Fold each of these.
Amino acid sequence: MSKFLNLPVDAVPSVGKTTATKLKKLNITTVFDLLMHMPKAYQNHTIITPIAKLYPMLQTSVIGEILHINTKQTSHKILECFITDNTAAPLILRFFHFGLNLQQQLKVGKYVKVWGQVRAGFKGHEMTHPEMQIYDDKNNPPKNDNILYSIYPTTAGVSQKQLQKFIKNALIELKKESLTEIFPAELLVEYALNNLYNSLLNIHRATTNNDIENLLEPYNKNKLRFIIEELLSHQLIRLKDNKRNNELPSAKIKFSQSQYDKTLQVFEYLPTDAQTKVINEICNDMNVSPPMIRLLQGDVGSGKTFVAFAAAMQVIKNGFQVAMMVPTEILSEQHYKVFSVWFDKLDISCELLYSSMRVKKKQQVLLDLLNNKIKFIVGTHSLIQKNVEFSNLGLVIIDEQHRFGVSQRADLIKKGKKEQIHPHQLLMSATPIPRTLAQTHYANMNLSVIDELPQGRVPIITAVMSDHKRAQILEKLNHHCTDNKQVYWVCTLITESEHLQNENAEQTYQDLTDNLPNLSIALLHGKIKSIEKDVIMQNFKSGKVDILVATTVIEVGVDVPNASLMIIEDANRFGLSQLHQLRGRVGRGNKQSYCILLYKNPLGENSRARLKIMRETTDGFKIAEEDLKIRGPGELLGTKQKGELELKILDLKRDEKIINSIKKYHIGMLENPATDELLNRWFSHKITYKDI
């Protein structure tokens, strides 16, 4: 077992504390992180090209004798060194940044071996700031070790030479370690993999007999080892946690048909077949001893709120409390208003908890929660504060779960661990999860999918328009806001920024007010007080407001059936999944709804492709797959919380076939004690999943 790989990076000889701090910018904190910092290119310095055969843009090595050294002053000092190999006119080495040490080393009659890119100059071929070795004896040049130079991504304060030196030193130290092979023999044979040390050596210290293009291929057998390692580490750590979870006791929630009948009575619509199927899955999970960990995913407007209500009703019938945690106050208020209407009809106590509540009201809520007078509570991060205690917490519901870190979810779960009883967990996501992401990041959870929308929903028509057509849109808004139709106008910023040209909510509100005097227009953003938000949203829902100018606070949770048009400023600045969430705020009634995505020129190729996808489909799962391709899993999951999915070399879309084929090794590796070494090196500095 190698402990060296899990040590802080400053355990590598020549890496000091200051440098270790700088390396954090490259996401390097451990020795293993350093060795996972992959080369972006390789250079072969062993190929020597005569000066006579040089041409512009060629990257090569040249050996020559120093003929002449010249220092001249223009706007700044320039050092020129002329070298020859007697095959053509001298090659000029040009230095714009140099010190006294370099001037003292460069002497006429000495020899140099340089490597760099050739460029055409006024006096002939030249190289600017080449890598250079200076020596005295023509017949005794620097030794050629036949090693390719690895070129790495760098950061301020850490040079290319330093990174090369750090990684070389790390490999020297690693060779002294006793390394256990954690992969089964069958896996090594199936993928023709090298052992750990040789794989790292062949990546960072590749010899010149290697094909450079092959070395840079993602499925080069040396890189492939670490693709598989990273994939297995993410899957196995969650499967181990799942195994540990299955050994925990929980409250057995017996299904009550009479309670479910009451649930249906307060619901205005018949549940879809998909909702019924998911409710059955949840109830079956909660009726057995291990605590449920289930991820409920469904497209925008698919009816996840009712599913959560139905699950909560069963838990409450069995004598337990339910807590629902949401990421924002406005969403908590929206949920509370919906749930309180339903629960009031059944004479079940429901409360709201958030940070800006009045002290006296908050104290009463906390007391009632502890005394089991409150059966259902919805709140923000306030639910995980130390002074919040439950009497008998049986179910935790996390809405928009990707917005919470692992530790935050764990903190809420801990509040229900009394007398060795662990609460059930229902995590909800309105962002459909691509299958490959579900098989890695959510391997420790059971998945439920609501893949059906309520009847009568009309697909939203999406258009992509340049901001130049803004005036035309304004002209049509007067006509649109008839027949009880309403509009969302979404902006990205609250206040102006010198660095971004985004339209801000306040300026847009003023522009619309000036240009559309006959319409009622309101402004909503995160800095408005809760009481004012309530009034604004109530006015919008009741039809008193025609156009609501808002930031992305309306991304989730707000349901206004008469809102049939959404205009999104600077749509190219949003991710696909967020655009899909925003678009889902319209189309909730039986009217034809529209979404206009505005952009400012020039529009990049990537942005154009994203907006094209939005125009062509309303399928959230297809959009999520495309978003995964474009932005990667860290962004797709939301804010990059500590403990969430951060990939070093694995690409979930590219490596989909491996994800599917590697499952057969799970059982054997779960039972192998050496697997802990794999998990330790990939997760040594991250939060574990044992508490969720």
Amino acid sequence: MKLIVNVNYSKAHLILRGVSFWTMVVLFLGYIGIGYTKEADVRLLIDTSGSMKVNDPKNLREPAVNLLIRLLPDDSKLGIWTFDQSVKALAVYDLIDNNWREQAINNSKQISSKGLFTDIGKALEVATFDTHRQGDMARHIILLTDGMVDVAKDPIKNVEARQHILNSQLPRLKQSGYVIHTIALSDKADHELLQQLAINTDGLSSTANSAEELSKLFLKALEQADQAPKVPLQANRFLIDSQVEEFTLLVFKKKSDEVVQLSSPDGKTYKQGSRVKDLRWFNTPHYDLITVDQPYEGEWQLQAETDPNNRVTIVSNLQMKFSGVPSNLFQGQQAEARIWFEQNTKRLVNEELFQIMKLTLTLSQEENTVAEEVFYTAKMAQDDQGAFTLKVPEMRAVGEYTLTIKADGKTFLRQVSKALSVREPLVVSHERITKEDQEIDVILVKPQSLFLDTEATVIKATIAPPVGKPSSLVIPLQEDKKSWLLSITPQQHGIYRVAFGVNAKDNNGNYIPVKLEPLVFKFPENFNPGVSEQEEQPTPTTEEKITDEAVDEKEKESDSSWLLYGGLIFGNILLAGGLYWAYRRFFSDAPPTDDKSAASKEDDADNIDLNEEDDIDLDMPLDKLDDNADESGADKASDKKNKQEKVDVGKENDSASDSKPET
């Protein structure tokens, strides 16, 4: 019998005493032999096209593939293929055992990035060789790619290959029960195609922002395929009970040189390299995988940085199972989780056991708890298959969630988890095509959940043209019952607005509240709204605005220049007028003459040509002009004679000055 250790786990005072609780409780357990969840069936498809050299330069696909190989339990089925222009088997599809595992890990070194094309359709065809096989066990495909469907240099052939996947392969795979999980490793990947493959088969569609995230996304997809029993890991502590024969601890590392240690209930601490019989420690730069056989009962403690992706899987006769929650839900969709327990592959029904059990349902996004509810099985009824039903809280916000359910049986803890994608129920797309020299606007409405009843859902469109009254019609459902298609042939130039009214129902006939945002588009594409060709000129571009501003500045500078020049000319005129006034005052002291002669002289003085350079220098300073006036007054008689001569000369120059341009 294994060592029993007294422990205090979290806030619950849990004491394990004497022999195992389950050794006694098994005496009065009731069994119901209603089915058993079989081991996982997984097919892994790895893109090895040349573009992977850019998106995965360190070839982190290899350690991610090895993680899946090591985590899947024995007797699970796994096959691995690489694809580019062709498809090659990296590990033959078969039951997993130690020999198969070692050979597959060795073959993973062949993963490269040398291919020329990306034939996704061929890869799906090879991996789904057994579509004819009937059974209730889901077959899961994990598809990793960084590109689009690329089978030839001819783009028409690529389009045809893509349509073949959606119109032929996908319906067949869905009918055969395959679940496709897609991982995109590039922004250039065909995200629409990958999402359609996942949504229509209720798989996960994920995007890796870097190759470093591949291992975590592979693990996320693997948990959809393999319901490996787990125990909760809280604050780097976990509890092992007497029913656990083995546990495997997965620890992701933020730094490659991070040292991970593990402490057992007996106080001993282990690390990579510790020589212990029942300890296997696999170390990589990205994660550590620690397996302990026949572990001590009690609380174990992990000494490493916390990570929400760390987990503890166990091998135990006592397992917790659940079903009923799809991977893809729409906003506000009601979902119910069914929980049951199995002992030696048979479901348990026991009133004594479930009188003390507590179930905690948690919805989280990354490390943030969105909702949490507690259920006590003593107040719940089991259905005829021994399962409890838990209502999942509505998720109103679009995004990625993790659903976790923990069972606390006082002497044991179990946990199950599932990744969920919450989407809008319907998505609208718009495309303009040309058919027979005529442009047509095509509006396509697609569901994003398998649980939407497309035949019971009615979508109405109200189309408002640029001019005139709106018109309404029901968008017809396509023959494949998968989408609604509306074609509009614009007759007017301007802005069109399409509003939607939706009456949606799920597969159970329940009404689903759906609100689609109006779609607005222009015709033609280069139509400039709000500008009339007759009334207004086109709105100037940024370059034109800059040019206009430069012209305005230039005009302002020109106006300032004219003011400056005008001021100088006006000042010169005033100066000349002052000189003329001084001249008249000087000659007022001369002897009187006859009126006719004086009048004649005054008229002659008024005809002085200010443009004559010899008369006055308009640029001469005022003090110089005063000095000249004083010197002229020293000899009046001589000045009178000279003045008379100047007047005569002025008369002769009048005619000449008429031909000069005015200043």
Amino acid sequence: MTGRGRAALIVCGALLALGCRRAKERDPGAEQARPPSGPSAAPAPVPALERQELLARLASCEVVHRGLLFDLGTPGFNARRGFSFGPFTDSVPVDRDGATFERVLTNKLSFDFWLDERIERPMVSLRVSKGTARLLHVSIDDVALGAVRLPKDDIRIVATPGAGMPLEPGRHRVHLRFRGIPRDEKGPVAEIDWLRIGEREPDPTSYAAPTNEDIVADVVLDRVPKKSLVLRAPSAVRCWLRPSEASRLKLSIGQWGGGRGVAEIRALRDGQPPLVLQTRKVSGGESAAWTPVTIDLGAHGPGILGLEFAAIDSTHGGRLAFGDPVLVRREEATLSVPRARVVVLVVLASVDRRLVPPWGPTGKLSTLADLARSGVAFGRHRAPTSVASASFATLLTGLPPRAHGLEDVHHGLAPELRTVGEIVKEANGRAALFTGVPTSFRPFGFDQGWDVYEAISPVKDLPATEPMARAERWLDRELDGRPTPILVVIHARGAHPPWDVSREEALQLRPPEYSGTLDPRRGGILIGALRARKQRALRRLLDDDWVRLSALSEAVLIKQDAALGRIVALLRNRGVWDETLFVVTSDVGPGGPPDLPFDPQGPLTEDRLLLPFVMKLPGGALAGREVQVATGPEDWTVTTLRALGLTVPPRLAGLDLFARAHGLSPLVARAEVASLPGSFASRLGTRLLH
């Protein structure tokens, strides 16, 4: 399999696993933590980068047992469906008596797989439940493997007769085509528990599949319990990942049941023979005990690595147990997050980061320039989508769009989702959101979970700085109270139309003697009318229009910069500036030529995804630094909770920005994922996958 193929599988597996983590219950524990009353409180540790549970990644791993086994109805299966992001309409996962099945709704189902070894006489077997289809035709690539008759009742294992050409190592696609479906039948075509691709066997119906439910168990050896990966010999589980230089694998190996066993841990790379990292012989029975194992993964070089846990041999029906497999850092990090009493998040809508310091000229943006000097700038901060409301939702929930469900312009934030404002409130803190951007108004669900929520419509005769002015007044009142954690979020119009520029001010903007259509008040309407034109050639701005657009953006940002300066001055005057985490960022980029700007759901291009992100830490830590590490809005959520001394809900996968700014890499490389319904754009190192 090529490196690009493995990278794609890692990306898709992570994407779809995140999509299944949408919370239906509230995460307990955050309300138990209490923030410090002053700056002398002990700083919080940074555990998010220090431990990766491998069993949590199992859905995207490969199971090898007499061939490749695919457990349908799981996120790992969906990750193989042509690198598609979903949603999928041809099948849905269902649960039947604790087992996961894929309910097929159409007459065809296809997915990709990779082989590391040649299969001489390929055979496909399935455990399938009855449906409306009577026959199943199976092919791999363009080679037919035969037809099998599906059960009329109950659940059975069926297998192809085994024919066709040998399968070489590399990428392949299996096609399942269902036939014999009565025209008047509306029910599911079939339900599939698992599918296996391997060498032809005399009796495939006796096969006992090690599905995800079967290979994870709580194992107790010598009175020591461990959550374990349990395998019968011969079988293996392969997890493809990109570990950092500091990653170490820690686990314990034992024999569960009677007899003796041999376990191996191997490293796999494309085009190279497997490298055996550890071999352990263990004994079961009454004297069974755990054998601890530690492996330095960083010593085996950078790049994508397949970590294989293999049960080589076992006697008397025993199984090999790989207990509590985790990735930890080679040397324990001593970094700590500076504690904050106040957190201010300013989201300037649709800002091209080339207009603001440190990426653009300082000009009259004195407040933003001062923040760049006193804070840390993140040069690879990327939005999770081109939909402004979805990106803003990720900031407030710490979840990617596929998890929080606000994936397009037609959806809102679900009431059961827990925002960072709500977590602060539960910790006896105060939280407020002031917005002048319709994408974060009440119809999109952003009013939930705040002590104060105020929305200022752009059509009102109020300046674009009104959300900042109201936030300043609210902060002034709150700072008179008892010392509790304070969170204020400001969603300002930024560079998005309508632009708060008078006709007199517009006359002074470049280009001189402008005669185009971009009027400060009606510019958004005019751009929308251009976007509605049928001919693509007519959906564009002229060169002078782009110059005027840049000038309008600069003019309104100067006014909002001054309003931000008044908030900073308030915090300084009230003596809490050194206890403040202050962040300025954007929701999405405006987009550039030849496309029209401000598309509500534009393509996933870098000019819409790459965002400004400047963070002033409490105490002025890391002042004036610019770091080139991959970050996203979900990282702000985690960093804010840690800075306030609150417990991070376990479903949040963000990274601590303070540790990232210090150069601390995650134990496993994280794909930078941006998504829309039906499409995604992901970066993994230097690889870009669309």
Amino acid sequence: MITKDLLITFFKERATQPVSFREIVFKLNLTPPERRRLKRLLREMVNDGDIVRTRKGLYGPAEEMNLVTGYFEAHRDGYGFVIPEKVGERDIFIPARAAIGAMDNDRVIARIENRRRREGAIIRILQRAHTRLVGTFEVVRTGFYVRPKNKSVPFDLYIAPNEKGKAKDGDIVIAEIVIYPSDKRPPSGKIIKILEKPQSPVDEVEGIIDEFNLPRRFPHNVIEEAKSLYVKGLKNSEHKRKDIRNLLTITIDGERAKDFDDAISIKKIDSGYRLWVHIADVGFFVGWDSLIDREARKRGTSVYFPDRVIPMLPKELSEDLCSLKPEVDRLAFTVEMDFDMHGERTDVRFYPSIINSNERMTYTSVKKILVDEDMQERQRYDYLLQALEIMGDLCNILKSRRLKRGSLDFDLPEPEVLLDVQGNLEDIVKAERNFAHMIIEEFMIAANEAVASYLEALNVPSIYRIHEEPDPMKLEDITKIISSLKILKKTKAVVPKDFSSLIKQIHGTPEEDIINHMILRSLKQAKYSPVNVGHFGLASESYTHFTSPIRRYPDLVVHRILREVLTKKHLSDKRIKELESILPDIAFHSSRMERQADEVERAVLSAMRVWFMKDKVGEEFDGRVISVTPYGLKIRLKDYYVEGFLHVSYMTDDFYQYDEKSLSLYGIHKKKRFTIGKELKVRIDRVDMEEREIVLGI
């Protein structure tokens, strides 16, 4: 029977040039029913980007025709980059003239036109990421348009007079895209909703949920399926599980957390340490292709906001049945690991378990016990002291070992938005990351590595969390900045293997967080892939995501694969082919949804910043330059974790020019120079609520 695998083999081994449908039929000697199936398979493979159909109707493998499939990362000026799906390939620059109307996050096929410069042109859009836009409705002499709020969309959307509904000039609207932009015709759409202008930060969050078309609720049939799982509960599962309810077990999470993915247990053994990492057994409740599974796969990840969460799973699962709450029996998937005194893993065991968490600890409380040695907190949790101290010891050993192998230790400050009980904005501060966070981080890394290396050794198809080495072209700016800051005695061209030692050398300097952010931006984005190429940032040869199945879909998939391997011992060839066929799409879609969640969180942070600063126009603040462009300076304020932009036209004390060599702005007459890290006093000149921008002056 004709299959996709057979066709892939045919194109790789027997197609020395583009071939027609008839040639494929003749060479494979296909029967009439197989020909009909061939038509359908060719159409699917063209849509998936596996092969390409030329204008003459001939078929060929994409890589043989100098074509690359990937997703488009768009810039507001129209140009962008195609990030290849195939691991190990460098990004391809797409000039604005060659984007053929592709939008941010669209799945595309691009032709490489200059291999040395990695420049190309998009020739086909396989899958659109956006079906609608949020923006401002504008009435101009030439007609009606929607100006998108999303800066990466490089066009205004034309609205026909009969498609504008009741929208008026200046309204914030949601428009459905009816015709996408192309070389031949401009984009057009229709108004489907008029949004109220936000009157509070909470209203702003509601608008962002609309802007990204995020689901506010689960479909009724998904909720009903989730409720039915209460009957399943712990029934008929105990005898297939290891009962470790007597093991001292705790969770450590933030104060506001409700979905407890992971719990930990530990003890000293003669050879070193024994660590148990218990992960919520979501796979027991959510089977492949169930209603809940399909919805979770579509969502890909939970999305977090300052005042709420849009979960991947219904709350019946995420906050109850699967959540490892204290003092109740819960089903888990346990990774039991032995480590020697140097932190090397000497043994590992995986098994479904039933646990009962003794205590729901918080990061703040664990820090008080281990770092601050707070007597009141230590007395309150005296029965946990020994276990917590052993956890702290093992964390230090594991982290030291990870750093020695070249793992990047970013201690990047992250902003935290604080709201009061009424939803009013109180403050934007630097989020605390303490020793308790590091304990959980190290233990989860250890469990993820153990699962990944186990599945890889068995040669079982799985999803890996990969992180490729950075593009050498993106490292030039870092070298320039380090040279201009003169914080290192000798500065040579930075290469990826230098990152770990560079982070150590700048630790404690005023410029530490700025350079760390620059290094982070120069790195490729970690993603999910069925092909393992290692994780550069962690210096890990084999890594996956296993420890958060409540909020990340790839973790749930890895759970199922591990359970299948442990139960069946050996997967059939048919099952292996099934996994090989579905995992690439799951990995690609999960990576895309993760990127969208990141975009949502950035949009919320930008919105919260302008709401927080809107009453401070005219006030002056101390700040520090964190980025320099030909157009001006990006500055972070000292008093609040807020960033604004000082445009060069607002720097009225001189004529400023951009020095690309030192990445600085310098005054022609007064010789004043602004480089990354420079401190200065700025004034809040304007807060643009609609564009979510803070405009600074000096």
